[in-house]
């Protein structure tokens, strides 16, 4: 028995899986979730972290016995650098991208942390495409000292930590001695020290200064919530590392009339009883500057709760902009009252009434009337949507399930 299954669930494997199964599952999920392939950067980091723990026998045994808390208690054994990408490179080759050879740990320079921003867009903007501007503040190398922090030769190794950037503190707890590693206070963990009088007047010895930059973000037609737009090398600059990336995460706002399922659109319309029986027209306002006029032919009965489809009026695919379909659920609006003088005309046009059920001689028939009911105070009253015996359109019944083609 394992204490937690979160890491196994992230990789879609059983807690008793083999090392080969773990590696196979990580390869599959990493390829699909990698940011370079349009995946979710945060989920990719979580999956990589789960594999990093479970692929190490010692860490896996601690996790199985005590969960994430056990890893933390063991000195942060569950931690990893999400920017390094070591696990991914070991499996797919650091020098050759996704399928390149070479293997091993990447030998390239360290990068600064990626800057992640979220852009909230409407379904209309995802349908038509959009270009928006994003202002961000990042650090760039100080132009006055060229990223040195002060005069030439002013930078010295920190005497407080001997240039390591960290200090080791020994703390005795009863018979045990605990080693604690903390960032050096003298150099703020940089390992370098600059005399105050020799520091750069512009950056105050920090080597970088804040800078505002405007980015144009192109939201392509058909993009989905969770997809990313990446600006390479536009993150913070550092004299000791290459700049990371700016990652723009697209967030789709809820829509008041449409719901999206892959490249299909789902909506509901209300039409009157006469149109459903005798034909007519109704319109659906689309996501652009069009309204779709739907013709209901006389005699083509449309029932309450029916789901119809309009082909080619869904969301465009991102690659070729080929549209999906639009699914329309019909809600029939019944009249509040009918003139009794017109009932004979209805009897001529509609099928005959269904006779009441016949009962045995021992059943007494008693006539009653139906009155309007006030169920506002009846909190336990719940009725199924739609007519009796008719399934409601929800995620578990009649909602269209469409297998979209690979883009």
UniProtKB/TrEMBL annotation:
Transmembrane segments: none annotated. Pfam families: DnaJ, DnaJ_C, DnaJ_CXXCXGXG. Keywords: Metal-binding, Repeat, Zinc, Zinc-finger. Gene3D superfamilies: DnaJ domain (1.10.287.110), Heat shock protein DnaJ, cysteine-rich domain (2.10.230.10), Urease metallochaperone UreE, N-terminal domain (2.60.260.20). The keyword Repeat applies. It comes from the Eukaryota. Residues 129-212 form the CR-type domain. Residues 376-407 are annotated as: Disordered. GO terms for molecular function: ATP binding; Hsp70 protein binding; unfolded protein binding; zinc ion binding. The keyword Cell wall biogenesis/degradation does not apply. HAMAP family: DnaJ. This is Uncharacterized protein.
């Amino acid at each position: 028995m394992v204490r937690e299954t979160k890491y196994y669930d992230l990789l879609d494997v059983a807690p008793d899986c083999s090392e080969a199964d773990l590696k196979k599952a990580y390869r599959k999920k990493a390829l699909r979730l990698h940011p370079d392939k349009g995946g979710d950067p945060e989920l990719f980091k979580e999956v990589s972290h789960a594999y990093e723990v479970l692929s190490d026998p010692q860490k896996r045994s601690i996790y199985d016995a005590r969960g994430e808390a056990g890893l933390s208690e063991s000195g942060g054994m569950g931690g990893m650098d999400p920017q390094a990408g070591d696990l991914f490179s070991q499996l797919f080759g650091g020098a050759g991208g996704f399928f390149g050879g070479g293997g091993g740990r990447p030998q390239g320079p360290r990068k600064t942390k990626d800057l992640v921003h979220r852009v909230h867009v409407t379904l209309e903007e995802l349908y038509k495409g959009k270009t928006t501007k994003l202002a961000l503040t990042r650090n760039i190398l100080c132009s006055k000292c060229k990223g040195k922090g002060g005069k030439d030769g002013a930078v010295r190794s920190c005497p407080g930590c001997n240039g390591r950037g960290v200090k080791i503190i020994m703390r005795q707890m009863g018979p045990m001695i605990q080693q604690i590693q903390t960032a050096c206070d003298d150099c703020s963990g940089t390992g370098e020290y600059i005399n105050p009088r020799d520091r750069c007047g512009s950056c105050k010895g920090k080597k970088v200064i804040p800078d505002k930059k405007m980015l144009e973000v192109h939201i392509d037609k058909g993009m989905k919530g969770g997809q990313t737009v990446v600006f390479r090398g536009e993150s913070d600059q550092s004299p000791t590392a290459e700049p990371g990336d700016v990652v723009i995460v697209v967030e789709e706002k809820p829509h008041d009339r449409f719901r999206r399922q892959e490249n299909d659109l789902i909506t509901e319309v209300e039409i009157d009883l006469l149109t459903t029986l005798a034909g007519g027209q109704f319109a659906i306002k689309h996501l652009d500057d069009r309204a779709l006029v739907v013709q209901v032919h006389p005699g083509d009965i449309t029932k309450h709760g029916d789901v119809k489809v309009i082909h080619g009026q869904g969301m465009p695919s991102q690659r070729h902009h080929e549209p999906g379909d639009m699914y329309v659920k019909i809600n029939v609006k019944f009249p509040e009252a009918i003139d009794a003088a017109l009932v004979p005309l209805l009897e001529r046009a509609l099928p005959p009434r269904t006779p009441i059920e016949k009962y045995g001689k021992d059943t007494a028939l008693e006539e009653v009337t139906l009155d309007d009911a006030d169920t506002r105070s009846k909190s336990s009253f719940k009725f199924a949507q739609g007519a009796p015996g008719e399934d409601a359109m929800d995620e578990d019944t009649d909602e269209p399930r469409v297998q979209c083609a690979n883009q």
